[in-house]
Amino acid sequence: MSGGSSAQPSVTQIACGDFHSCALSSDGTVRCWGRNKSGELGDGTDTDRSTPTRVVGVSNVSEIALGANFSCARGNDGAVTCWGSGRLFGDGKLVSRVAPTKVPNLSNVVELRAGGYITCARDGGGAAKCWGLDAGLGQAPLRVKSLAVSAAHACARLEGDRVQCWGEGVWSPTASSTYAKPSIDGVSQIATGDSFACVVTAIGTVACWGRNDENGLGTQADDDNHLAPSLVPNVASVTALSSSEAHSCALVASGKLVCWGSNSEGELARGTQSTGESAGEVPSLAGVTQVAMGADHACAITKSGVYCWGANRSGQIGDGTTERRLSPVKVVFR
Q1: What is the pTM of this model?
Q2: How many CA atoms lie within 13 A of 142 on its CB side?
Q3: In order of start, what are the domains of the chain with their CATH numbers?
Q4: Residues lower than pLDDT 70 in the chain
Q5: What does the pLDDT look like over 18-43, one tens digit per residue?
Q6: Which of 19, 24, 116, 294 could be cross-linked to 13 through a Cys-Cys bond (beta carbons 3.0 to 4.6 Å apart)?
Q7: Gap between the Cα atoms of 265 and 272, Å rounded
């Protein structure tokens, strides 16, 4: 792993939007970096930042979630605050570069997820509410145990550890395909990409379904729509999973990352650029405790700090540069 030394805060969560990243610290504050033309960094400007900058007016945060042009935070009180651009507040209105503002008519939130232009929140009773630009968001099921959100759809783990997805087209529960209700149970976690979804099974393997043109399913890239979930080869003992536009990374019990899918910007951290790749271990990263995926970059919390890799045109890697990083580099907290 490369990168200089820095006085890093105690980071408890990392999250990635399409072209920006944010870190939640143990003191309940949030720092963000990367693209800021939509106000998604929350520092009161529209200037891109290549190192973390503190979000103004946000504190006592317990969870963060990032979309394409916005960021959101769940407070210790169960309220949700969002900033940036988009339809951020569930009222259908399009806002631009808005400062951190509380989402109305939302309380007792225990889980917050975002992706693309969609935000979803789950309350303590298992009810899920989603809002944003995409259609079909009113079909969220009841008694949700956990959520996953992408640009085109959202998925939920339900009671009985079954999966249901909803959104437009093939992801609608009323569509004739089985995308929305795959025949799989015993699920412990869900992750979604733009046109595919993956789950961690009860025995720690990963199964995926959907489009596979960039090998998002971890098998062999093709142009088919795979309706039935299939196991990702050579992936086991998974404790956490994150997916984004066309790539995924699984955290395994050893503290290593195993990643697959698109690698056009080095988002698989293998030191190269390539087309869709099968699952392989990130060679230079150990002691990982959490991973998050952006459109074509990724970040991880390790025992030695926060590291990011992949595309960096907007400074979303956080190392003070805008150079693409094909291997993990340390985020520079000032």
Answers
A1: 0.94
A2: 1
A3: 11-330 (2.130.10.30)
A4: 1-8, 134-139
A5: 999 999 999 999 999 999 999 999 99
A6: 24
A7: 8
Counting every residue written for the chain, the total comes to 334
The residue to which tokens 């503290």 are assigned = 255
Identify the residue whose tokens are 């033309």.
Answer: 37
- The dihedral region occupied by 66, where left means phi > 0, alpha psi between -120 and 50, and beta the remainder, is beta
Tokens 């790749």 belong to 277
Amino acid at 207: A
Cα distances (Å, whole numbers) of residue 279 to 234, 236, 260, 282, 325: 7, 11, 4, 10, 20
In SS3 terms, the chain reads as CECCCCCCCCEEEEEECCCEEEEEECCCCEEEEECCCCCCCCCCCCCCEEEEEECCCCCCEEEEEECCCEEEEEECCCCEEEEEEECCCCCCCCEEEEEEEECCCCCCEEEEEEECCEEEEEECCCCEEEEECCCCHHHCCCCEEEEEECCCEEEEEECCCCEEEEECHHHCCCCCCCCCCCCCCCEEEEEECCCEEEEEECCCCEEEEEECCCCCCCCCCCCCEEEEEEECCCCCCEEEEEECCCEEEEEECCCCEEEEEEECCCCCCCCCCEEEEEEEECCCCCCEEEEEECCCEEEEEECCEEEEEECCCCCCCCCCCCCCEEEEEECCCC
Q: How far is CA 84 from CA 22, 61, 229, 303, 325, in A?
A: 13, 17, 35, 31, 26
pLDDT at 193: 93
